Structure to design on (437 residues):
């Protein structure tokens, strides 16, 4: 795993987009020889619509569609910039390449070897090393860089009024997250966060059954997200894994936790927590959630267990049958505690594994992002929803430091102030895209 220091938002010289842009309203066709192919720029390897295709010409003559960058038909698809070509960035490129409504993909990456290796797999993509240089020529931005760079990059895109999808977590601080939400409202640009499990068909089916009351009164929810690694130098196990579990619980309960209590430990390496237990207390509905997180476990575990008064459910993201409903429960005598004379009564019924469509959650998420842009609607995993998750993460950090319960602000209390303004001038965002998320 390599670490590369980079400035994602600024470039060193003029982008070749500017040199090659043409004012064409309709597609035209051009017949070129190999010698006619324009040279690569140090920042962008050509116009997103056709320059890379020209560089890949195999024959002496190829006839290719030629679109101008500055003017396109209104019915044309969206041009999407993916910032970061690491683990999650490459997945977004794969998914977006097959998403209806996407006309082209630009890879924003300063490690050109990494970007070109991804371009080999997806030859119609183009490469640029600067987000600021590419912004005039794209319609939407997906940010898949390490978390500490999310705020800087998302702010640059929102200032340019570009819809943005940011990988989880939205930012590494609540203040920065509120700033992004305020800027999105000010600019009118869509802000969405990559809480992928909200689009998981099994999780959505589980939520439907919860809302229908099938499980009865919810006693508690337990989530486990364990594996051996992957250790990261920029965030602890809480900020790496807990966004998934908090987003799942918030989505299932349609609520945010009111308080948290957490304990964590740095076991394999000093200074960074690699194992943690978290207690999330929800007030409406009154449910307690328990989350176990670890980078130091021999088995890869991704489970959510819900125990209700009538039924129980287990969502296992690693199983062939990801969702199972257990018709099991326990009852006492007229609500009294069990005793030797009047023991508890246990009911064992059927175990049902409902049919779950095998749709990829990331593909559903990215399609929802594109559809939300085209239909001008608020996305499900919005920036406002992410505020509750970032607030919970900060509260968990404080709880581990203070060894006690910490109150989480409500969504109303998290509303950005109207006078919030982005800082003047861009900061340099130094990050490594090759870190596996």
């Amino acid at each position: 795993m390599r670490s590369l220091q980079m400035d994602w938002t600024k470039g060193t010289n003029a982008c070749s987009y500017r040199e090659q842009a043409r004012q064409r309203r309709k597609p035209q066709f051009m017949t070129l020889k190999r010698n006619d192919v324009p040279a690569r720029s140090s920042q962008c390897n050509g116009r997103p619509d056709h320059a890379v295709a020209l560089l890949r010409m195999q024959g002496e003559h190829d006839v290719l569609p030629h679109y101008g960058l500055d003017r396109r038909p209104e019915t044309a698809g969206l041009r999407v910039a993916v910032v970061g070509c690491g683990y999650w960035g490459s997945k977004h490129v794969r998914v977006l390449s097959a998403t209806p409504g996407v006309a082209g993909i630009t890879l924003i990456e300063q490690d050109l070897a990494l970007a070109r290796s991804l371009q080999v797999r997806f030859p119609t993509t183009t490469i640029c090393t600067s987000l600021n240089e590419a912004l005039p020529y794209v319609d939407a931005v997906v940010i898949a860089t390490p978390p500490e760079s999310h705020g800087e990059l998302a702010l640059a895109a929102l200032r340019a009024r570009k819809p943005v999808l940011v990988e989880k977590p939205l930012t590494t601080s609540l203040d920065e997250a509120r700033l992004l939400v305020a800027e999105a409202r000010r600019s009118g640009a869509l802000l969405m966060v990559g809480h992928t499990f909200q689009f998981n068909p099994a999780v959505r089916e589980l939520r439907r059954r919860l809302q229908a009351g099938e499980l009865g009164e919810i006693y508690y929810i337990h989530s486990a997200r364990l594996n051996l690694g992957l250790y990261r130098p920029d965030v602890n196990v809480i900020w790496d894994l807990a966004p998934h579990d908090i987003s799942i619980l918030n989505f299932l309960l349609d609520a945010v936790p009111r308080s948290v209590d957490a304990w964590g430990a740095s076991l394999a390496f000093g200074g960074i927590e690699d194992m943690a237990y978290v207690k999330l207390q929800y007030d409406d509905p009154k449910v307690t959630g328990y989350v176990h997180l670890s980078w130091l476990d021999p088995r890869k575990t991704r489970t959510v267990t819900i125990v209700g008064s009538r039924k129980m459910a287990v969502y296992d993201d690693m199983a062939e049958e990801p969702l199972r409903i257990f018709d099991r429960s326990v009852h006492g005598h007229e609500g009294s505690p069990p005793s030797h004379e009047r023991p508890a009564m246990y009911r064992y019924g059927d175990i049902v594994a409902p049919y779950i469509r095998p749709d990829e959650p990331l593909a559903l998420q990215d399609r929802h992002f594109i559809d939300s842009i085209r239909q001008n609607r608020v996305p499900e995993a919005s920036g406002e929803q992410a505020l509750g998750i970032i607030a919970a993460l900060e509260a968990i950090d404080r709880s581990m430091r203070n060894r006690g319960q910490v109150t989480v602000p409500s969504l109303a209390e998290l509303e950005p102030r109207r006078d919030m303004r982005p800082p003047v001038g861009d900061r340099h965002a130094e990050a490594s895209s090759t870190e596996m998320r």
